[in-house]
Design a protein that fits this description.
The chain has 369 residues and is an alpha+beta fold. It has nine helices and 21 strands. The structure holds adenosine-5'-triphosphate (ATP) and magnesium ion. The site of magnesium ion (MG) has 2 residues, from α1.
Length: 369
């Protein structure tokens, strides 16, 4: 059992490109941490540095309390599962899973014990004598995980292991991996570009952008209290709506003026936002905090505005509306009984208690009270 620590870790590739810019991260023992971010943000690079497959340019990596900068990948006591499972096609499942242990000269009985235990955990006992080409995608994926489990590592590393699977299977495997982690109680670092995967699997999520860590937190922390506009826009689907706006004082109240519409800032937030009076800000509100019918038990402050419906996406349990108000466009996620009609004007309400404001220049959040 071990945690993992990255201290001021930098990665510059031989061509001079700096992929990772001094990141600090502590992953606790038995924790499930997900690295998430758009393509190219250096998730794989970060993971491969922990694995020892990529040298670090600067800083320190610790597994447990051992600095592993100069420890070879095979001696780090980690196991990694990649997107391409890279199973040996000519070996059956049993041999695929046993292979690494045999190389490490484990006694036959121990190899057998570990392979059967992993097969039992993953529910693939009846597949042990099959060759990979006779397995489904999900089964192959389980074998790849099995190969990692038999090593009984201190840390599991996963690099987009589900992205070759179809959407439905991905959801199933996602749940299986989460259960597996609870069962094995082993530290796991999991890389994905899919924010839903990150939200549903991680004890904590690390959101990355261009080699920087933008925020670390539990799924609900990063969702409800994003540190910056990037995280606010990356986590949540459909994404948070953003409006360039100005904070203006009128009759003792504060107003967000987007040019196309004005909404009042809740009184309890005046203190915190007051310092941004007359400044450029970005106003953010999530699609689910916009409704086209005010809930009967509506509490707090709902600001009404008129908008034209430009697109309707009925999803069954909800409807996504793309709306237009003056120059501004935004997305609302409304009740399936919505009466809004295409290209007609509708009244919508913003739940101002859920609003976010960002400094227009730094894109940092102005923390909500
Ligand atoms: N060997 C290399 N030499 C130079 N640049 C590299 C090398 N490998 C990766 N990079 C660059 O480093 C950056 C991070 O790459 P990385 O593969 O870690 O991103 P990622 O977040 O895993 O992306 P994806 O979601 O597409 O897998 C990218 O800009 C990539 O082009
Ligand atoms: Mg990658």
């Amino acid at each position: 059992m071990a945690g993992v620590k990255l201290i001021d870790v930098v990665k510059r590739y031989p061509n001079g490109f700096q992929a990772v810019n001094s990141i600090n991260l502590e992953i606790y023992d038995k924790e499930f941490v997900v690295l998430v971010g758009p393509s190219g943000c250096a998730k794989s690079t970060a993971l491969r540095m922990v694995a020892g497959l990529e040298e670090i340019t600067d800083g320190q990596i610790l597994i447990g309390d051992r600095v592993v900068n100069d420890v070879a990948a095979k001696d780090r006591n980690i196991a990694m599962v990649f997107q391409s499972y890279a199973l040996y096609p000519h070996m059956d499942v049993y041999t695929n899973m046993a292979f690494a242990l045999k190389l490490m000269k484990f006694p036959k009985e121990e190899v057998d014990r570990r392979v059967r235990r992993a097969a039992d955990i993953l529910g693939i006992e009846e597949l042990l004598d099959r060759k990979p080409k006779r397995l489904s995608g999900g089964q192959r994926q389980r074998v790849a995980v099995g190969r990692a489990i038999v090593r009984e590592p201190e840390v599991f590393l996963f690099d987009e292991p589900l992205s070759n699977l179809d959407a439905k299977l991905r959801v199933t495997m996602r749940a299986e991996l989460t259960t597996l982690q609870h069962q094995l109680e082993t530290t796991m670092i999991y890389v994905t570009h899919d924010q839903v995967e990150a939200m549903t699997m991680g004890d904590r999520i690390v959101i990355m952008k261009e080699g920087h860590i933008m925020q670390v937190g539990t799924p609900l922390e990063v969702y409800n209290f994003p540190d910056n506009k990037f995280v606010a826009g990356f986590i949540g689907s459909p994404a948070m709506n953003f409006f360039s706006a100005k904070l203006v004082q009128v009759d003792g109240g504060l107003i967000i003026d987007s040019g196309s519409f004005q909404v009042k800032v809740p009184k309890e937030s005046h203190g915190i936002y007051g310092g941004y009076k007359d400044k450029e800000v970005t106003f953010g509100i999530r699609p689910e905090d916009i409704v086209d019918t005010l809930p009967q038990d509506a509490r707090g402050q709902w600001e009404k505005l008129n908008a034209v419906v430009r697109l309707i996406e009925p999803l069954g349990a909800e409807i996504i509306l793309e709306m237009e108000s003056g120059q501004q466009r935004f997305v609302a996620r409304v009740d399936p009984h919505s009466k809004s009609r295409l290209n007609e004007e509708a009244q919508v309400y913003f739940n101002m208690r859920k609003m976010q404001l960002f400094d227009a220049k730094t894109e940092q959040v102005i923390p909500r009270p």
